[in-house]
Amino acid sequence: MEHSSRVRRAAAPPSGGDGPPFWGQALxxxxxxxxxxxxxxxxxxxxxxxxxxxRAALLAALDVVEGGPEERFERITRIAREAFGVTGSFLNLAxxxxxxxxxxxxxxxxxxxxxxxDTFCGRTLAQPGPVVVPDxxxxxxxxxxxxxxxxxxxxxxxxxxxRVGEDDVKVGTLCxxxxxxxxxxxxxxxxxxxxxxxxxxxxxxxxxxxxxxxxLAGLEPxxxxxxxxxxxxxxxxxxVVSGDFHDWHLTDGALHFTVADVMGKGMSAGLLAAGxxxxxxxxxxxxxxDAVAALEAQVAPELSRAESFATLFxxxxxxxxxxxxFTDAGHGLVLHLRADGTEGILRSFDLPIGxxxxxIERVSGTVVLAPGDVFVVVxxxxxxxxxxxxxxxxxxxxxYRGAPDIPTFLQRxxxxxVEHDPGDxxxxxxxxxxx
Length: 435
Description:
By secondary structure, the chain is of the alpha+beta class. The chain has 2 domains: 2-207, GAF domain (Beta-Lactamase, 2-Layer Sandwich); 229-433, PPM-type phosphatase domain (Phosphatase 2c, domain 1), CATH 3.60.40. 28% of the residues lie in helices and 26% in strands. It has 10 helices and 18 strands. The strands form 3 sheets. Strands 2-6-7-8-3-4-5 form a 7-stranded mixed β-sheet. A 6-stranded antiparallel β-sheet has the order 1-16-13-12-11-10. Helix 3 (71-84) runs antiparallel to helix 6 and helix 7 packs antiparallel against helix 8. The radius of gyration is 22 Å and the shape is elongated.
């Protein structure tokens, strides 16, 4: 797979002086706390404080603490680590006295539950906004932390609070760490905050029990005949109206296909999905990168007003060569089963529709579907059929390889959804090239 390069890095620390000018004004205007060497150590959070009790109660209602890693959060921390080039990125949930690491992408693997007061996040929850610690060892507020004095010898920390509920209760943080001192440029901090918004909306989606989920009735794509290929798919709703949709169509001999997942449940997600589908169909003859860019300009304001977003994989297949050109907006759920028995996953390097920074070009990619190869593009409900992680895609691949044909494979996926309720909309699209 080939990608154009667009990875933003955090800036290296200044060699001397008081730091770049923006620390004094631009970031303070955005209510960013930059911890300085002459600050007093932060006050640790008491176990029975009212804020701690509210956090713990809200996390219990969200029902996200238990159950281990989930791909919807793993995607966020994975993109954060790649984008900033740091050694670790984490999504943490703060209870009354403990911190649960819900997702971690790190060279050093931390215990999933640790004492809250012994963490950067525990000491920065009282701050009004993002916190940046350029050099923790030189800072009395953090120099005594075990992760600073001992392995992994953290020096740099940057974290944004995660707020949910009508009262914007801070329930955790999305944060970065590194073993080298460094700073963040304003646009880098803005990107970290956008990733934090993504995380907040994923957390909130888990608490929205009152909305329905399901399928957009009557929007299943018609069968399509592509010589040398087999194309099929299925959607399994969780309720009445689904935030998932999939589509395919032929234009000038090329097959355009899409899988998208709108955050949220029920009617609101379904209406947004219908709008995205219509906007994309109106650009059915365009290259994926151009179609997604135009789609985003049209629907991103609507998604923002609805406090929602959508992950989307949109591609164009040239049947004669097997070349697949694609744009992946925060989706990252494409399994490439090769004829030689190996497999790969096409990763996403961008934020979803509705969260991607305005003016920043999206990453586009290409991959060749060789004779005997198969693409399986899914929504994240498929991951819930097994362990909620990307390892579930390999399990899905095993089901495909064990099925005599695509209809049987799809039937087995639906049967597993009955036996193992994913609690989410589920979509599977198969593009198979004949051997």
